[in-house]
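Why does residue order matter? Because the sequence determines the fold. Keep that principle in mind as you read this record.
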Amino acid sequence: MSCFEQGQLQAIADALGDTNDGLTGSEITHLLETCKIADTDPTATKRHRLYNAFAQDQNQRQDRTRILGFIRHSMKPERFARNPERFEPMRTHLNRALAFAGLSIDAAGMLATVKQAHTLSEAQRRAQEFRADLTTRGVHPDVLRFCREELLADNYFHAVMEAVKSVADKLREQTGLTDDGTTLVDRALSGDKPMLAINPLKTESEKSEQKGFANLLRGTFSMFRNTTAHEARINWPMAKDDAEDLFSLVSLIHRRLDAAHMPPRV
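Structure:
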């Protein structure tokens, strides 16, 4: 197995040892022991500690097997069960570093091979091109917020998944509910007297449209929410064209919600 180049190894150590979003000192100790990597400089800063440990192990073994094992162990989603907000920032930093080695960590914490990046501007250029295409389509501004380069650096799927979350946020904001996913849709949009209506609900056609809209949201949430329970979804090799079509769908949902009203409830 090939080795990481010095710059790649430094970038990976910097990401994993990031002061704000990286591993803690005790986590580094545990993970180095688990992966049987010698802790060569335990008193150093987290970044230097990891780099020195990784460099020595790779130099001695002349492969990167244990370093890859460290990355996999450090990014297991179950490790973040008590602090889920830590996972995505750490994954974003790490994927930016791994891109130069042609690797990526997906939302299930699995390593995958991707097209190798060669310049820092590649992810930014990709995001700008994607955003320009969506702007031409007239995509809703609440959706365009999810075209940031850090969301597109490893996979278009992640940007689409985050955009879908914005639909749930808008539903909660409009109704005051605190639910999520299909439960949120059922409480907000379903029933003879829904909390939120996309039309006057006077004719059978209008009532049918309301039901269809609720079904559309249920399907969208089922497809893109709670993806850690659906590994096949996470590993989709999503193409740019597919992502643009899905962003347009989410944009349609946003526009209908913007025009929705809350019928009086007796």
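The mean pLDDT is 86.
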